[in-house]
Structures are given as structure tokens and as C-alpha cells.
Design brief:
By secondary structure, the protein is mostly beta strands. It contains ten helices and 35 strands.
């Protein structure tokens, strides 16, 4: 930008600044015995010499001009040699017929830095006829599109700095973090910007489907992602300047989370994610193939929110741009193009970006199934089970019904006694504490257990996955199967913290009806169903004539079911478990050595298209959606949903800090237990 002004404006500025100079030291004039004078320094031309990987200016060349006058004669100095200096180096210049000289400077910048004015100085020295030295202070903004230069003898910024910066004719300003005129508080580097994003569905990638150590199915959907990214940065006037990208790479983080969790997502909110890099074309377009990894299949058709974060991968300087953070609604992930309605997050954008980074780190974690079991609140009582040799002995099965019953009876006291030793493991040390009696429920269970141990002691031998070596998809998905439902449903207004994956490991779905009424327990049905942004647990299973229900639906409805089967090579640790019917009663023992097994796991995706359920969510694309893992588990589930003259009760699961582990997607699947190999039961 040229700093030349109209004659009237120039005269006005001269008079104004002269008056100011009488009362303050704003003109930056210095006493000189030079025999010449230097007129106003201006910027004649600005050119881009180099561009960075985003095709933004990175090196700019500036042509400066000033005119010299004979101090005595007050006339232009023609065809005379002078020196102009940056304080270290000098350039030799010669005045033209108008008495003017030109010199060039080259400055490396980052176009992503905040604009600011730099306080610099240049000095002029006569070489022959004219003597002396004249020092001139300037305000210089090389980030401005055309450059911005003010001679401080004629222009006095209100926030003028007192000390000039050492800016040479050739300098690297790309790592400059401070200095310049004006406060930098509130000034930030540029941020990535996008106004519209398209996600075009390309298909399911069965070969890229992952199975986690907790045996959670994580399918992959292929999309073509298209958008036109730009950079935004603020000018000195706090106006946002939009800069096109025509090259370079961007880091893309895309996560889909439960509705209402877009500003503070946690692990239990994650539905799907993608993280990768994309090339920006010379036309300023990103057209990239991405693989969207689904972490919570049951939530893909519910109401969800997308979080998109864009940030540059490469920079030639120490400046890092702010990420562009966007949130908004996203359509269902049901095997078609996805619609995104995004808006920029300007407040707390860095907080959201950090939360997404934490979320992605957790998504890549691979916890061992036995470690998850150790954190499960349903297993509150843990004995020093390494010494429980008898538990290992019956892992291969005690001989005969009578032997099994006596073994169960021997565990009644340990499960239901008032005082029990609680053992937890912390940093390879054992710490003991004592649990006080919790309720009369345990006392009643103790007596009943001695009379009928089969009913109050549950034994299981299970294989807990420690790592997954690989998986193979066993053919295409099945054709949808329809299950007709003719039964009653009830929704309880009482919320539950139940996760439906009891340590009993009976299969997660139990069809037993009518445990002791004194215990206050109906048999657990164990199915978890996602509906909208909530999820529900089948908390009761009763004969329909036992009691009235709050809400009842009994007209015929239908479930649509498809399934996929995988062979999974896993490293497992075999464990024996003893549990009771009262929550928090149980202990287990595991083999010291691991083994390698090939597990055959079938995953059933169940959709419930229902209009009149008390649980419907009119804003969700599909009303019910759940995952069942294991053939035996699915048979029990289908039987539970189709039995006549029964009522299936649902309770909404609430979230609390202590529920963090239980609400992970791994716990939302109806299965034996996260990370436990399915058995055909």
C-alpha cells in the first residue's frame, strides 16, 4: 500500500504533527549536523518472492523511496551518491533528476501471524558533496497485503513504541512472537476455516472392520470428504481477512458424539471417529477418501452431533495456527451420504479441540478384559484369589450335579456373610479393608443359599481377552430377518445405574422369572437399547398378570435383524468366577499363563421400527437400535422378545462420574461381558 497522500491531506498532517511535536516527543526527530534533509519515506511497490506450502506469501520484497534536499538551498539533490543503512549493512543509492532514491528490502514472514506494526529505523549518509547522517524512524507492517509504511515524523500512532527493533534489509520475521506497535493481547494467529463439508458415502469396508480387545465390533464406512478450506486472520483493524489455500496438507479430526455432548465429549459419548491428513489441491479443494470408524453401532441412527477440527500440518515457522473447530447436527450413519450442518465454535474452541484429542486417544486404547472386570462396580468383593486353588480345579468342571451343588454351598458364606475381606491390587501391593453389612438382603440370601445353593450361587469359567492378533470376516452380511413381537412393554420412571452385564456371566439375558420376592429382585433381562441420545436397560421380566404397569403397549410390532460373523485370533486368560444374586457379591481366580485361541463371534444388529412405544424418540431416524454378540445370547434375546403373556420392563440409565466405565460403548452391547469369548448358550 502506498503511503502517498493528497497535497491537502499532506499539508494537514504536517501542520498537525508539527503542533504535536511542540508538546511531546512523538516526531522521532534527532538533532543532526547533516547538510541535507530527508523527505517522507514511502513504500512504492510490494511483490511476493516466495510462497509457502499453502501458496500464501512467505517472502515479500519491498521497494522504498524518499527524496533528498539541500538543507541550505532547499532544492532537490540530483545525481548524487548516498548510503542508506539498516544499522549493520549499507546500500549505495544515487538520487535521480527529482532528487529521489530507491532501495529494496526482502523480509520472510508467515502469513498466518497476527498483523502488527514494527518500529524500525533507517539512516542516510552523504558520501562526497554532502556530509552528515540523518536517522529516520518508520512504522512498517509487512503482513499487510500491499505493505503498510508510515514515516513517524509525519504520523504518530497513539500506542507508539519507544524502542526501534533491529530489522535488517533482509530479515526473517516468521518466528517473531512479540514486539511491534499495539498490544498483542487478544491477537491470535490464523485459524483454519471451512463453510461447507460434504460426506459422500462410498460403501462399507468389511476388511477394515476392527474388533477390540473387549470384542466390540468397530465397522468402517468409506466416505469421500469434500470442502474448500481457507485461513482466517485478523487485521490491525480487527477485521477478519480470508486467505485461500492452494496447496499444503491439513490435519482432519472428525468425531460424532451423542447429542448435547459436542462441547465436552467423553468416552461414553463417542459414536464414530476419523483422524488423518488431506492434501489441499492447487484449486483450493480437499477431496479425500476417509474411513469413518464406528465405535457405538447402536447409536449410529440416533440424534448425534459432529465435531470437525481442521489444522495445518506444516508450518515454516514457530507459529502454530489455532485449529478451526466446528460443531453441528449430523444425519444418521445408515449407508448413504451424510448431511452436516456445521457452525464455527469461537468461544472455548481450544477446550473442545483438547477434549477431542483426549477422546481420540481413548478410542485407540486397548484395555484388557480382566482389567475392566476389576473396575466393575458389580464386583465389589474381591478375595486373595491367587490362593484359591479350588476355583481353578473346577474350571474344567466338577463331576456330577451333587458335587457342583456342594461346591456352590461352600461359597455361600463368602458371598453373603456380613463381614468380608475386600482385596484390591494397587501397584503390586495388596491392601485390605473391611466391608460393613450393607443390607438385610444379603442376610436373607445367606440362609436361602445354604438351602438352595443352585439358585444363589453362580459358577462360570470364562476366557478373558488380553489382546487381538487379527480377525477375518466370514462372508457377507445376512439378509434382514424380521421378528414379530406380540407382548407388553413397560417403561419405569425410576432411573437405574444398571448396565445389564452382571458378573454372573449367565449370558446377559436371563429368562428366569420370580426370584424370591423378599429379595426384591425380578430376573434380569439384560438387553441394552439405544433410543435417541438415551439408552435403556431391560430391568424386569414378569408374567403379565403379576402386576399393573405404568405404560403398556401390546399391539404387534417388529424387529429387523442382520448379522455378521468373524473369526478372531486372541490371546486370552482363563478365569473362574463365583457370583451371587445380590449386586457386589462375587470373586474370581485366573490362570497365571495366557493361551492363544480362535474365537468365532457373531454380531447381531437389531432395529425396532415402532410407532407407539412409550420409548419412542420422534427425532431419531430409527426408534430402537442395539447390538447382540454371540449366537446363544441372541437366541435368548429372541426368546425374551417373543414370549407370550409377559411384560418386559425398561429403565432409563442415568450417567454419573462413577458410571464412566460402565457407559463405554463396550458395555452397551448385549453380550456375555466385554472381552469375554462368547459360548453357545
Amino acid at each position: 500500500m502506498k503511503s502517498s497522500k493528497s497535497p491537502f491531506l499532506g499539508a494537514l498532517l504536517v501542520v498537525t504533527t508539527a503542533l504535536i511535536a511542540l508538546g511531546c516527543d512523538g516526531r522521532r526527530e534527532h538533532a543532526s549536523d547533516a547538510t541535507f534533509e530527508v523527505d517522507e519515506v514511502t513504500l512504492e511497490k510490494t511483490a511476493v518472492a516466495e510462497r509457502d506450502q499453502y501458496k500464501l506469501p512467505s517472502v515479500k520484497v519491498f521497494l522504498f523511496k524518499t527524496c533528498l534536499r539541500d538543507k541550505a538551498a532547499r532544492s532537490p539533490i540530483q545525481q548524487t551518491d548516498f548510503l542508506v543503512s539498516d544499522g549493520v549493512k549499507t546500500q549505495s543509492v544515487r538520487t535521480n533528476v527529482d532528487g529521489c532514491v530507491f532501495w529494496s528490502e526482502s523480509h520472510r514472514i508467515s502469513s498466518l501471524q497476527p498483523e502488527r506494526r514494527l518500529h524500525i529505523k533507517r539512516s542516510f549518509e552523504g558520501r562526497s558533496v554532502f556530509r552528515g547522517n540523518v536517522e529516520v524512524h518508520l512504522s512498517f507492517n509487512p503482513w499487510h497485503d500491499e505493505g503498510e509504511l508510515y514515516d513517524l515524523r509525519w504520523f504518530n500512532p497513539p500506542d507508539l513504541g519507544h524502542e526501534a527493533e533491529d530489522l535488517a534489509f533482509e530479515s526473517d520475521l516468521s518466528e517473531l512472537k512479540g514486539g511491534g506497535f499495539g498490544s498483542l493481547s487478544g491477537s491470535v494467529s490464523a485459524r483454519a476455516f471451512v463453510s461447507d463439508v460434504a460426506l459422500l458415502f462410498e460403501g462399507h469396508d468389511k476388511e477394515k472392520t476392527q474388533i477390540s480387545t473387549l470384542l466390540t465390533l468397530k465397522p468402517a464406512q468409506k466416505f469421500q470428504m469434500r470442502f474448500e478450506p481457507k485461513f482466517l486472520r485478523k487485521t490491525m483493524q480487527e477485521q477478519e481477512l480470508q486467505m485461500d489455500m492452494n496447496g499444503g496438507h491439513l490435519k482432519i479430526r472428525l468425531v460424532i458424539v451423542r447429542d448435547g455432548k459436542q462441547f465436552n465429549p467423553t468416552a461414553q459419548d463417542l459414536v464414530a471417529e476419523y483422524e488423518g491428513e488431506a492434501q489441499v489441491s492447487k484449486n483450493g479443494v480437499v477431496d479425500s477418501n476417509i474411513l469413518l470408524r464406528i465405535h457405538d453401532v447402536a447409536a449410529t441412527l440416533s440424534r448425534n452431533q459432529a465435531i470437525l477440527i481442521l489444522s495445518p500440518v506444516e508450518t515454516d515457522n514457530a507459529w502454530t495456527t489455532l485449529p478451526g473447530v466446528y460443531t453441528g447436527s449430523v444425519s444418521a450413519l445408515k449407508g448413504e451420504d451424510v448431511e452436516l450442518s456445521l457452525r464455527e465454535v469461537k468461544e472455548n474452541a481450544l477446550f473442545v479441540a483438547d477434549a477431542v484429542d483426549d477422546l481420540l486417544k481413548q478410542a485407540k486404547s486397548s484395555p484388557k478384559a480382566i482389567d475392566v472386570l476389576a473396575r466393575d462396580p458389580h464386583l465389589k468383593l474381591r478375595y486373595d484369589i491367587d490362593r484359591e486353588k479350588d476355583l481353578r480345579q473346577w474350571m474344567k468342571g466338577p463331576r456330577g450335579v451333587a458335587a457342583t451343588r456342594e461346591l456352590k454351598r461352600s461359597y455361600c458364606d463368602r458371598l453373603y456373610a456380613a463381614d468380608q475381606v475386600v482385596v484390591t491390587r494397587t501397584e503390586n501391593s495388596w491392601w485390605l479393608s473391611w466391608l460393613k453389612p450393607t443390607s438385610t438382603r444379603r442376610e436373607r440370601a445367606l440362609g436361602a443359599c445354604r438351602l438352595n445353593p443352585d439358585r444363589f450361587v453362580r459358577l462360570a469359567a470364562e476366557s478373558f481377552v488380553e489382546s487381538v492378533k487379527g480377525n477375518r470376516h466370514m462372508g457377507g452380511s445376512s439378509s434382514p430377518k424380521t421378528i414379530a413381537i406380540s407382548r407388553s412393554l413397560t417403561y419405569s420412571k425410576t432411573q437405574t445405574d444398571e448396565n445389564g452385564s452382571e458378573l454372573s456371566l449367565k449370558g446377559g439375558v436371563s429368562l428366569e422369572v420370580g426370584l424370591d420376592a423378599d429379595l426384591g429382585y425380578g430376573a434380569s433381562a439384560g438387553a441394552k437399547i439405544g433410543i435417541g441420545k438415551e439408552w435403556f436397560y431391560t430391568s424386569s421380566f414378569k408374567r403379565s398378570n403379576e402386576s399393573a404397569v405404568e405404560t403398556k403397549v401390546s399391539e404387534e410390532q417388529a424387529l429387523s435383524v442382520i448379522h455378521d460373523t468373524y473369526e478372531v485370533d486372541v490371546v486370552v486368560r482363563d478365569c473362574a468366577l463365583v457370583t451371587g444374586v445380590v449386586p457386589g457379591t462375587g470373586f474370581y481366580a485366573c490362570e497365571s499363563e495366557t493361551t492363544v485361541k480362535t474365537a468365532r463371534e457373531t454380531y447381531y444388529l437389531v432395529n425396532h421400527l415402532v410407532e407407539s412405544s412409550p420409548l419412542t424418540d420422534e427425532l431419531a431416524s430409527n426408534q430402537w437400535r442395539l447390538v447382540v454378540r454371540g449366537d446363544g445370547m441372541y437366541r435368548n434375546f429372541e426368546k425374551m422378545m417373543t414370549m407370550d403373556n409377559t411384560v418386559l420392563g425398561f429403565s432409563k440409565v442415568f450417567s454419573s462420574p462413577s458410571m464412566e466405565a460402565k457407559l463405554l460403548p463396550d458395555f452397551k452391547a448385549t453380550q456375555t461381558y466385554p472381552g469375554v469369548i462368547s459360548s453357545d448358550r
